[in-house]
Design goal:
This protein is an alpha+beta fold. It has eight helices and ten strands.
């Protein structure tokens, strides 16, 4: 819903005519006309839409989306994903800023190395974790996320780079072994190092939240890369049913109500950022594909001095939508099967 709100607000800002703004999908259960825009609430609690005049067809209306300047159209299209990112960031700020007992670690600096850990003898107090397998480490969660993704695809061996006394120190193919320890939410992994904690302040909260959002976005990017390389299959991809089940599992398996709420909201922030990135992929029917379409058509029209028929781009996006819907049905079927099997 916040995604479509981004499109709606920027369309209104640029005086683009919005025919309808809907919360959720399916048959309408409530409608109200306000000015030129029909506002509706629909019965299927998934997404929504912002229907702009002249979005996929010719329109003589000077305020039609297709008649807006190219840069305004790009801003309107990108505003949905931007709202996803802002929502994820704000949820993280609330979680970090108001969670009692939460330790802020916005700088991944080693405080101590546990005796007997695989990192003993390599890392030392004062080291700042810098890179794992070529990827930057910004916060403590980056360290565990990058190790769990196993970017090196070489067991427990990883290339670890730290900043020590202002200089980069590299440990190639360092054996980083995790210990499984029981926790209130099941089993947790520890890698044998403790990081320096910081007092909670507005600056630290904002810094940690922003870096956490970057970590979430990178996790999505790396996961997509693994899918394209064939390292992740369809069974690791989930849809709305799988997401609802995951949220329910996270909430019910937590050791307390407060921890459950924290975990669910954290997952919600990840999903919001995930949706923002997915919508910017250059695939027809997605915002990223539409942005590419605007750039291409604007370039062609600038050279030929002739306005292209928007129906052509509409057909391309319609084809992309059919493929996306087919993929969604396949993932939905897979999610339902996994619930009952």
């Amino acid at each position: 819903m916040v995604h479509e709100l981004g499109h709606f607000l920027t369309a209104k800002l640029f005086k683009v005519k919005v025919n309808e703004f809907s919360i959720f999908m399916g048959p309408a259960i409530w409608k109200r006309q306000r000015g030129e825009t029909l506002y509706s609430l629909r019965c299927i609690p998934l997404g929504g839409y912002c229907a702009m005049e002249g979005e996929d067809e010719n329109s003589e209306d000077p305020r039609a989306f297709g008649n807006a300047t190219w840069w305004k159209r790009i801003i309107i299209l990108a505003a949905g994903a931007t709202m996803n990112f802002l929502t994820g960031f704000l949820v993280l700020v609330i979680l970090v800023g108001f969670s009692a007992g939460f330790q802020v670690i916005s700088q991944p600096v080693v405080d101590s190395v546990e005796a007997g850990s695989s990192l003993e003898g390599y890392l030392q107090p004062g080291d700042r974790l810098y890179r794992i397998d070529g990827e930057r480490v910004y916060i403590a969660n980056d360290f565990t996320t990058l190790l769990s993704l196993d970017l090196a695809r070489d067991g427990n061996f990883h290339d670890v780079v730290v900043i020590r006394d202002g200089k980069q120190v590299t440990f190639p193919r360092l054996n980083v072994e995790a210990r499984q320890l029981p926790s209130g939410d099941g089993m947790s992994l520890r890698y044998g190092i403790n990081l320096v904690t910081e007092p909670r302040s507005l600056g630290n909260v904002l810094s940690y939240s922003a870096k956490s959002a970057v970590n979430y976005a990178r996790t999505v990017r790396l996961s997509l890369q693994m899918i394209f390389r064939g390292e992740l299959g369809l069974k690791e991809v989930t849809g709305p049913v799988g997401i609802v089940k995951t949220i329910a599992d996270v909430g019910t398996q937590s050791r307390s109500v407060s921890v459950g709420i924290w975990n669910v909201l954290s997952l919600g922030a990840f999903i919001a950022i995930n949706l923002g990135i997915m919508n910017l992929l250059p695939i027809p029917a997605l915002d990223g594909g539409r942005i590419v379409g605007v750039l291409l058509t604007s370039g062609i029209e600038g050279v030929t001095k002739k306005k292209l028929n928007p129906k052509i781009e509409g057909y391309i996006h319609a084809g992309g939508m059919v493929l996306l819907l087919a993929l969604m049905v396949l993932i939905l079927f897979k999610d339902v099967i996994q619930i009952f099997v």
